[in-house]
């Protein structure tokens, strides 16, 4: 894969790929403290649940190194994007390491390495779902840009492609910020994977024609009952897939599992700025806008979860976290 890693830690310095400029520009910006990293997370400079967890971990490490109050840094980072559970999970893990008087630079590196290993494991397990000649559909960007390596929803695609399996991917454009068309399509192009970009509203038509064999998406949070919180539009896709008897898979690492939240209805859904919807549409002036970043897919619409442990319908067994540096 000819893709830049979205997060680089080199010689005690952190660099984040500015994903707002992709695919036209590949630009890295150095991050100097937790406040700057929180801003980068908030404005989608870095995005994807696992990636913002890793970035937040390095933010906490830098605060610890620079003797900044860790509780203040933790609060600012948590508030940057509250819906994705990986962010709070990484911050809490760093605070726990500080309580044990451990080196937080080492802990952040550990989280980063775990994420890479989990993506590879998700890819190995999920690749078994992709049969020769099959057609997949994915939403948003749960790719290498959203994590440390390979992605979650895209990891099985990369592994299957490397193994010589021929398949096709339909990529939702993913309004309003177009993570599908700007990021996922670009990623798959770089990897040489056959794909077709579609408007979000085309999915039902393709499924009615029998053109889609399975759907695989990522997740920003999976609650205790198996509800999946993911990019807005995921719920509609799951409903359509259920109606057409198309398997619907959620790929995510254990750090995305939130056992403390009972159901998706208990999750506060982030509202993004109206300008993300109205920019580029001159006729839209002063109109009211709703721009929720995520929606909730009920567990009963999920065929199975693809995790580092395998493909499973048992949310507790599939996503219960392990401790230590090895997933």
How would you explain this protein's 3D organization?
With 327 residues, this protein is an alpha/beta fold. It is 37% helix and 17% strand. It has helices spanning 34-42, 49-65, 70-80, 85-99, 104-126, 155-162, 179-191, 203-208, 234-243, 275-278, 315-319, and strands at 7-10, 13-17, 28-31, 135-138, 168-172, 195-198, 214-217, 221-223, 228-231, 248-251, 257-258, 294-297, 304-307, 310-312. The strands form three sheets. A seven-stranded mixed sheet has the order 6-5-4-7-10-13-14. Helix 2 packs antiparallel against helix 3 (70-80) and helix 4 packs across helix 5. It is globular and about 60 Å long. It starts with 6 loop residues before the first strand and ends in an 8-residue tail after the last helix. The relative contact order is 0.13.
Which tags fit this structure?
11 helices; 327 residues; single chain; disordered C terminus; alpha/beta
What would a concise description of this structure say?
The chain is of the alpha/beta class. It contains 11 helices and 14 strands.
Instruction: Summarize the amount of helix as a percent range.
Output: 25-40%
**Residue share in β-strands:** 15-25%
**Count of beta strands:** 14
> What's the tally of helices?
11
Please specify the SSE layout and strand pairing.
Blueprint: E1 7-10, E2 13-17, E3 28-31, H1 34-42, H2 49-65, H3 70-80, H4 85-99, H5 104-126, E4 135-138, H6 155-162, E5 168-172, H7 179-191, E6 195-198, H8 203-208, E7 214-217, E8 221-223, E9 228-231, H9 234-243, E10 248-251, E11 257-258, H10 275-278, E12 294-297, E13 304-307, E14 310-312, H11 315-319
Parallel strand pairs: 4-5, 4-7, 5-6, 7-10, 8-11, 10-13
Antiparallel strand pairs: 1-2, 2-3, 8-9, 9-12, 13-14
Helix pairs in contact: 1-2, 1-3, 2-3, 2-4, 2-5, 3-4, 4-5, 5-6
């Amino acid at each position: 894969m000819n893709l830049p890693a979205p997060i680089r830690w080199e010689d005690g310095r952190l660099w984040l790929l500015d994903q707002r400029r992709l695919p036209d520009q590949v630009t890295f910006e150095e991050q100097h403290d937790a406040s700057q990293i929180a801003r980068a997370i908030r404005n989608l400079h870095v995005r994807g649940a696992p990636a913002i967890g890793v970035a937040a971990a390095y933010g906490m490490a830098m605060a610890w190194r620079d003797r900044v109050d860790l509780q203040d840094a933790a609060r600012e980072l948590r508030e940057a994007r509250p819906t994705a559970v990986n962010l709070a999970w990484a911050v809490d893990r760093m605070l726990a390491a500080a309580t044990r008087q451990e080196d937080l630079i080492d802990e952040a590196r550990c989280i980063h390495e775990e994420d890479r290993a989990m993506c590879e494991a998700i890819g190995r397990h999920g690749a078994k779902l992709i049969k020769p000649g099959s057609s997949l559909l994915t939403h948003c960007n749960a790719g290498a840009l959203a994590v440390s390596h390979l992605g979650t929803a895209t990891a099985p695609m990369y592994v299957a492609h490397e193994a010589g399996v021929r398949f096709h991917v339909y990529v939702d454009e993913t309004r309003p910020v177009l993570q599908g068309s700007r990021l996922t399509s670009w990623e798959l192009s770089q990897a040489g994977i056959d794909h077709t970009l579609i408007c979000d509203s085309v999915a039902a038509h393709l499924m009615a024609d029998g053109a889609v064999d399975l759907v695989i998406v990522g997740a920003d949070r999976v609650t205790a009952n198996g509800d999946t919180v993911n990019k807005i539009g995921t719920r509609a896709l799951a409903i359509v897939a259920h109606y057409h008897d198309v398997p619907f898979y959620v790929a995510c690492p254990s750090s995305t599992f939130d056992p403390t939240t009972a159901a998706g209805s208990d999750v506060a859904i982030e509202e993004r700025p109206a300008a993300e919807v109205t920019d580029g549409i001159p006729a839209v002036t002063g109109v009211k806008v709703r721009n929720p970043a995520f929606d909730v897919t009920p567990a009963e619409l999920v065929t199975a979860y693809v995790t580092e442990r395998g493909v499973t319908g048992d949310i507790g067994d599939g996503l219960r976290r392990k401790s230590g540096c090895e997933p």
